[in-house]
Amino acid sequence: MIDFIKDLAKRAGDKSLEYFGKLSDSDVSGKATKKDLVSIADKAVEQFIITEIKKRYPDHGVFGEESGRSDSDSPYCWVIDPIDGTQNFVNSHPFYCISIALFYNGSPIAGSICAPVLGKLFYAEKGKGAFENGKKLSVSVCHTLDTASVATGFAELRQNRPEPTLSRFCKIAPMLRDVKRCGSAAIDLAFVAAGIYDGFWEEGLALYDVGAGILMVTEAGGVVCDFNGKDDVPGSGVIAASPELAVQIRSALQL
Ligand code: IPD
Fold this sequence. Notes:
Mean pLDDT: 97
Order of helices and strands: HEEHEEEHEEEEEEHHEHEHEEH
Number of helices: 8
Number of strands: 15
Helix content: 25-40%
Strand order of the largest sheet: 4-3-5-6-7-8-9-10
CATH class of the largest domain: Alpha Beta
Structural class: alpha+beta
Low-confidence stretches: none
Shape: globular
Distance between the termini: 43 Å
Number of domains: 2
CATH architecture of the largest domain: 2-Layer Sandwich
Bound molecules: D-MYO-inositol-1-phosphate
């Protein structure tokens, strides 16, 4: 199963490169708000992924960012973000990825994140660890906010809901050594699993943004919780870090 997912993410990454740096204005449009973009690449890559999945697992369900949820009674569901970091992609910024996760009865059991321009392929299978290009991943051992490099995003701003996101940001940011905001929640989560970032937080994300990344963090020894310390992820926010740091990030985000 993991070999299929890894290979599919890689091939979907190759597909995305057919469009990267080549989009014209007419290839990009707004979604719920004009700040929330979709391109012909998002749609083409998602259609490619779904076609390949249906060839092998015709009865499985699918939940894709652009095509929505399919009708299926199967306990298996493929959660797909065909281009995570669309804003970056349309501006030829390399920090984007393809995120594919397989859920069973509502929990991720396998997933892969391919960042083709960065040359990185992350993957994880429940109970078997998280890896990048064959190397086993572990979250960082950083355990204080003032020595932590933590990533975030502003999904709520895209939906024209600046608060409480901005108040939370202004509270926690001065406590941290560094804040990263690079525009792909899926890569941010994979970087937490790899120990590149010490933590991540964001509110307003969708399941397809985080489906593969949350499995990678937990398989790399980290924890994922919502802003209340529960598992209502991503609905009540997402925090991902080592167990020690996650508690401190959650506390710092309380208003
Ligand atoms: C977006 C990215 C971004 C995050 C947004 C997401 P998309 O995904 O992950 O980092 O801040 O909330 O929507 O829309 O480009 O697939």
